[in-house]
Amino acid sequence: MSVVWLDVTTIMGWLRPAVGIVRTEAECANYALALQKKGVQVKFCQFSNDSGYDEVAAERVAETLMRITGHAGDSRNAPPQQPRRESVPLRRKLKKTVLALAYRLPHRWREHVFAFMRTRKPAVVAGWIALAQLRGASRAFMRPVTSLLTATADRVQFNKDTPFRPGDKYISLGLDWDHKDLKYLYHLKKTVGLRVLLFCYDVIPVKLPHLCVGDVAARFALYFTNVAWCADKILCISDCSRNDLTELLTELGAPIPALDTVRLGCHLPEIDPNAEPSPAVAKMLERRYLLFVSTIERRKNHETLYRAYTRLVDKGVENLPLLVFVGMHGWGVGDLFADLRLDPRTKDYIQVLNNVSDSELSRLYRSALFTLFPSVYEGWGLPVAESLAAGKFCLASNAASIPEVGGELIEYLDPWDVSVWTERLKWYIEHPSEVERKEAAIREHYVTTKWSDAAQSVFAAAEIDCDVSVG
């Protein structure tokens, strides 16, 4: 009987709360554990550049889910599996060690440590890259290869105990551009006989490379070409992403495999009444605030909201609520953070939170006056869906896939038009009854997608017909 393999490489190495792509992989892993309990032949695997693919025990997956999401799924009655031999690249080992040590610190110290590390990130990354290059150079010197094909064949020969068998199905929906070798996966597909299901969240690095870190267009064009050659089917998270991917593959002259669209889950975790929020979150919950949930990076366009708030302050708008940014510090926002730190107009109005737990995030959504999402481009726009699931109105960008998420229930603005954002922010702040009217419409008409339903769609795309309720 064929086995469905869910790749959990991304979550196994993740140490922060689950966000975006990580949450998608985590929720599908949670669903897969429930499938195992029902007797479906589902197993887990993890990829390493040193050893290829190895099986991961269900118990380890459950422990990982508990660590990053707070729920462990259900691994009871899972078949016994051998522990995976650990083989992790040096760069990931260093990152994992540093983050693990930081998370042992009390919350009030942890934020200071992360702030200290962020200011030195370029030096740390440069050191990691230097170590990796030195390691690679040493290998090349001691064991030269004549071609990429030879290198791939050597790896397959090295990993003789690959867990896959003819007819098995492989699903990967994590950070594959960083964590996978698609040439190796393609070789396994051809030699073993795998059916491969891969994901496309968006094609932003190729479509809008100036909004991403470094010169990524060529790298990701190659990545998407490899995805197209490797996958029997690609799942996209919106019609916008599917159309963008089709256009890109056509331009690249790559094959276009079967493309399907799946809708991501958006229901929020229940608030744990026994879990006290962190002091920083508790302080926010006592105030009136607007909420923007997103990694803080250029593409997400926090800059427009900052500029809109400076104009509101300059105009003397009274009773202005806090503007709360919830998300990790990303790329291209050094100047923005300097402005937030130094601008006397907004230092008392704009607050930043990160490392927020699922329960805390649910509290923040439900207590916000309304939410904001001015992103320049999205493959989906999960925070908009989460806002609607919480019954909250969102003032959002009209770009890319975002209107697919909110339909007619929210208002859309040009993400670059600071004047329009300033005017509409002021209007909604001064007209709370209109916000309440829109929230009533959201409660009446918005249909929340459970993550279990999203995961079921993924496995159905792999031709696994099993209806499993996981709450």
Account of the protein in words:
Helix content is about 50%, strand content about 10%. It is α/β, with parallel strands linked by helices. The strands form 3 sheets. It has a 7-stranded mixed sheet, sandwiched between helices. The longest helix has 22 residues, at about 120-140. It is globular, with a radius of gyration of 23 Å. It starts with a strand and ends in a 10-residue tail after the last helix. Residues about 75-90, about 140-160 and about 465-470 have low confidence and may be disordered.
Describe what is shown at a glance.
The protein is of the alpha/beta class and 471 residues long. The protein is built from 21 helices and 13 strands.
CA-atom Rg in angstroms: 23 Å
List low-pLDDT spans. 74-90, 140-159, 465-471
Give the overall pLDDT as a whole number.
Answer: 86
SS-based class: alpha/beta
Helix content: 40-55%
Q: How many DSSP-defined strands?
A: 13
Main β-sheet description: 7 strands, mixed
Overall, the morphology is globular
**How would you write the strand order of the largest sheet?**
3-2-1-4-5-6-7
Number of helices: 21
How much of the residues is beta strand, in percent?
5-15%
Rounded to the nearest angstrom, the distance between the terminal CA atoms is 28 Å
